[in-house]
Amino acid sequence: MVVLGVTGGIAVYKACDLARELMRRGCRVKVVMTAAAQRFVTPLTFRTLTGEPVGVSLWDDPASRVHHISLADEADVLAIAPCTANVIVKLAQGRADDLLTTTALATEARLVIAPAMNTHMWRKDAVAGAVATLRGCGARFVEPATGELACGDVGEGRLAEVGVIADAVMAEVTCSRSLAGVRVLVTAGPTREPIDAVRFIGNRSSGRQGYAVADEAARRGADVTLVSGPTALPDPFGVRVVRVETASEMHGAVEAAYSDCDLVVMAAAVADMRPAAPASGKLKKDAAPETLQLERTEDILAALGRRKGTRVLVGFAAETEHVLEHAREKLTAKNLDLVVANDVSAPGAGFDGPTNVVVFVTPEGEESLPLMGKEAVARALLDRLDPMVKGRESC
Ligand code: CTP
Fold first, then answer.
1. pLDDT surpassing 90 at residue 298
2. Residue ranges lining ligand 1, Cβ < 6 Å
3. How many whole angstroms from 255 Cα to the centroid of ligand 1?
4. What is the pTM of this model?
């Protein structure tokens, strides 16, 4: 189901066509209008076009369950067209003061935004910053077109053509169930290798990237198992989560799920070394050794690569130098289909923050992505993996 948000600009009349076009392409469409939009077109128009009740206020529809929540849950895609500067900035700030912005905040649906405004407004830093924030959270923007604007100015800011917006919405609708029936195994987070009963060797991984991949795969209809090292993150909705501590426990949990999966995304930062003889109690400092004897942990992904079958295997390569070279080596050495390479020392990239800068490395070549939120990286990754998984299924 597509929830079509309509905000107040002269281009609202084109949203009527958009609603019809989406219905022609097989979508059920429910419209939510802001108060300003209703100054241009009445809810009756959309009600008649879509055959569905039109949401106009947080306080309407007392007969159903909480309206913004039911809309938020029902939506596969929330498309906002036309979207004013005001609403773009509110969405970026997480403000929720009407039915549309509250639904947008409550929904897990994919967001498509088609802005329409005066050229100067579109170019203002406040708007550009909000667009960048929303893009970083995975929103898809349908760029405004250049031409004559209703205010008489000529420039960028016209609502994109209805067909172009409909294409963007349909692309999101299609991928919203694209992994139905696919069994996905994701690992995330660090591992902790005990030194004694209270100390461990660990790393800075927050788990966010792997959790974002698991969450996105589940939202595309996949059956997802997430094997997670210790993180502070909540379980993603609709995902089976197996919590582990050590590399050895992670290996066990991954092996248990491996026979039943089609796609593995190994995002975990697995420790390469562990103390060879951890103490069972707490070491007292006077009795503690001055050097730690370490031993290698098992390389989980390499072991999976040796028994790959028809599965698609994805690894991560966290590097601080010669990023692509090392990523290509890992691709071959571990028998992978794709490596997500990142320079963990680059600004905005790496283990602990909300953003990442990655390159997808495959046997065919490389694709560099710009600085993005980890959710957007997860989306781009699954867009890329989707045809690979389907190609294997049909083998
Ligand atoms: N990996 C794994 N088991 C390990 C170490 C790493 O499965 N014991 C996986 C990671 O989850 C990641 C990939 O292998 O998907 C690459 O991990 P990375 O730490 O970048 O590389 P390593 O293979 O450990 O090599 P190095 O540390 O020398 O770069």
1. yes
2. 247, 266, 268, 270, 272, 297, 299-301, 315-318, 330
3. 16
4. 0.74
